[in-house]
Amino acid sequence: MSSEPARSISDDDDDIAFGETLVSVENLTKHFTTGGGLLSLRYDATGGGFPFRTHSDRVRAVENVSFDIKKGETLGIVGESGCGKSTLARTILKLHAPTDGDIYFKGENLADLTGEALRKRRREMQMIFQDPQSSLDPRMKVGPIVEEPMKAHDIYDPDERSDRVRDLLEKVGLDPQHYNRYPHEFSGGQRQRVNLARALAVNPDFIVCDEPVSALDVSIQAQVLNTMKRLQREFGLTYLFIAHDLSVIRHISDRVGVMYLGQLVELADRDELFENPQHPYTRSLLESIPVPDPRVEGRRGVLEGDVPSPINPPSGCRFRTRCPDLIAPDTYEMSDAEWVNVRRFMRAVDRRTFTVTDRAELLAEFFDDAYPDGEAGDVTDRAIDNVLADEWETAATLLQERFAEQSICALREPSYEVEPEHGTNQHFAACHLNADD
Ligand SMILES: Nc1ncnc2c1ncn2[C@@H]1O[C@H](COP(=O)(O)OP(=O)(O)OP(=O)(O)O)[C@@H](O)[C@H]1O
């Protein structure tokens, strides 16, 4: 966390002390319903032209997410595209209505606020988006763009506002003389600085940054991130910082949350998360960071398989269908080596990643060192017969039902606290491997 700000420009009497909880997100859930609205009204070509309604799908974009953010800290949220990062950000700021769960800001439940109280909280919570170009009106000069939120919230008189704009332009690293320039006259990095000035114009406490440097050249990213850090110290800001790029997250965050398919799967201090990751998904993400020296060999490409649909996510742990550490079902007696082979065979059948000509070849490829006995062996035998008879679908279903679906990873949703090795803050990891038994 950055040190106590040298100067606070906040005018509030309800200020939260540095290091105390500013934002609390509790069991936040956001589902989108698609396909069942007006757009799904179709004309039935065979039935007299009356519109009929198709079934609707429920996209589980964010599910049961909880965390606190302390005043003055940066909480980074990382995850692959589509895992729900933007939806989480927008729901926290009430740009989407939550399906369930609560958001507390300065101890107040945002759901309970209306009118002036809600307006005030909205002013205190600002957002910066990924694309600095499209979030700036090309017909407006930069001065009025930065001034506009002050007008909207009716704060400061007109002279104060334009002085404040010039001051803010300087603070974000731009020339105050650029007041009369248009957005297209700036580079991408400069435009993101204009966005920062605009967000700061209304004295926020909390800024949600949704991929703010992803559209920028790598060489510019660090400069903008360093400016954001400096502004954080100067104005006592708290950031929720969303990115898919782990190096960006590592650079800016005090704590990091990892999202997968709408859920938070791990949350820990920055160093703890990067040095002692406890969720197989986090480990896979960290291992997929490109190695600068191509001669250094890592365990690369471990994130196999597609991300399942958020409309019908897997039961239990959502990462289990891709997890390299899926836990063996305790219904069978299997050695570790046997389970590793069964799991590899099951995944390969599911994804049809091999061709076979006969049983001996298949056994050599998957079960050279260990073949399961007893019931697990019978199931594997049947699956092999199915594959050899070109009945892949039957084999895949059999293996899924008898092995994958019997694992604790499929049967129970995981949620565990882990003893941190770095620092003393909470380390949360939603993986059954962390169950202490
Ligand atoms: N308005 C919407 N209506 C229906 N589905 C939506 C809507 N907004 C997002 N989604 C779906 O919710 C899921 C999460 O999307 P979201 O944009 O939050 O992910 P993300 O992690 O921010 O991805 P990216 O980094 O690509 O922006 C996706 O499956 C997405 O298609």
Automatic annotation (TrEMBL):
The keyword ATP-binding appears for this protein: yes
GO biological process, one term: peptide transport
Alphabetized InterPro entries for the sequence: AAA+_ATPase, ABC_transp_ATP-bind, ABC_transporter-like_ATP-bd, ABC_transporter-like_CS, Oligopep_ABC_C, P-loop_NTPase
This protein's UniProt keywords: ATP-binding, Nucleotide-binding, Transport
Keyword ATP-binding assigned: yes
Transmembrane spans: none
Residue stretches making up the ABC transporter domain: 23-286
GO molecular-function terms, A-Z: ATP binding; ATP hydrolysis activity
Family: Belongs to the ABC transporter superfamily.
NCBIfam families attached to this UniProt entry: oligo_HPY (TIGR01727)
Protein name: ATP-binding cassette domain-containing protein
